[in-house]
Structures are given as structure tokens and as C-alpha cells.
Amino acid sequence: MSGKPPAAVVAPAQASPPASPEAMLPSSYLVTHRTAETADSVTLRLAPTTAALPPFRPGQFTMLCKPGVGEVAISISGDPAAGDGTLTQTIRNVGAVSGALCTSRPGDLIGIRGPFGTSWDLDPARGDDLLIVAGGVGLAPLRPVLLGALARRADYRRVILIAGARAPAEFLFRGQLGDWAARPGLAVELTIDQAAAGWAGTVGFVTEPLRRLDLDAARTNVFLCGPVAFMQEQWLRLIRGSVRIDHVEFRTGNKGVMRIPFSQFDPR
Length: 268
What we know:
- The protein is of the alpha/beta class.
- The protein folds into two domains: 9-14 and 119-264, 3-Layer(aba) Sandwich (Rossmann fold); 21-116, Translation factors (Elongation Factor Tu (Ef-tu), domain 3, Beta Barrel).
- 18% of the residues lie in helices and 33% in strands.
């Protein structure tokens, strides 16, 4: 046995094969359902009108094309085990293309390419604890991770979801969050940045519930997604003082997972 302290596993990334020629061509999808998540975010349920795209893995994204406007990369937020060819995409209005996609209604057509990007691999976490930490819209790409873990719940020890938002109305999937919180075998804690009327939950950044966790560093797999500042200033500040980590893997937008030595990562 070595004298090194145990290391936690942070967001294992699974390399993806090169995109197939078919993935580079847009497929036509029909908007079948639209859910307004927040004031600036919607979730679209999409069904193929011709051949469906290849199955996706948690963490991957597609290129969504709004005819006459343009194309943008959006993380997939659906169930990876759905198996019916449909896609679920959660979109935040931050520009011309994403704004046009957010106005889509059932019956509209959208062009989709993909799936692209590296993915989060759940297999190495079998037999261990899963800690899923989401900041703001980071819950959208992490939803497939959670759904995949719940579909194979017996494969893991504890499964914990911690999600943070600026205000109660800023949480994505609010209806599902309640269902998840009531589900046996899943611990859910929500936190908001500042106190709000009617809010009885945790107030503060996600570091607040994280500090209360009793983590088994050698058997904890952490899946993390959120704004870069969230990951750097909040998460790394906590684990730098409590858990030894050899490498950090984190996602920047839809550009994939970067893996760098922890000793070289400056959270400032």
C-alpha cells in the first residue's frame, strides 16, 4: 500500500470515435413538445421525420439549425436509453440562433447534426458513490448522467445531486426536481445564491451543501458542469482543502472535456 492519500475521480471522459459522414449532414426533426423552463430557457422534444441520428452518450451535443437563421451547438439533455430516436434539447436564449430556437413551437422543423463531443462514462463508477454537481444551466447536460445512473441504480452506492441557481425560478426541470427528491435512493439538495421569499432550502453556493457531505474520496466519482467561474472558484476551492485529486476534467461550453494536472490548475 502506498502512502499517497486516495484520489477522487472527477467526471471520467470517454473518447468518441470520429464523427461519421452521416453525422455531418443535418437531419430533419419535428418539434413535438415545448416546455418553458425559465424566463430565458426552453426544452424541446424532437422527433425525426426521416432517419434518426445515431444514439448519443451523456455529455455529448448536437448542432441545431434554425432554417434561415443559423446553427448553434447545444448539449443533449434527454434520456440516453430512450431508444425511440427522439432528442431532448434544453436551450438558453443567449444570441440570435438560440433565441430563434427558443421561439420554436410544436410542428416546427429543425435541422440537427451529431451527436458530437466526448462523453461522461458511468461504467468506471460502478460500485462507487456518484456526486452530480450542477450550476445553473449546467444541469441540462448532466441530466442524462442522472437518468443513466437511475436506470442502473443498483450499480452504485450513494447517488447525490446538488444543483444551484441564482433564484428558485432559475432552476431547470423544476417539476422533475421534486420527483427526484422524493425518489428512494437519490439524495437531492438545491441551493440558491441569495435568500428569496418562500424559499425554505439552502442559501449560498453549492459549496454549502458540499461542506456537509461525508465523502469517501477513494470511492467517489464527481460529475460537474456549470459556468467556468462556478467550477473554478466554488468547487475547486472546496476540494483543494479536503480531497486529493490528481487531475481535473472539466467542460468548457461544448468543446469537450479538458484534462489537466490539478497541481497546474489555478482556480483564480
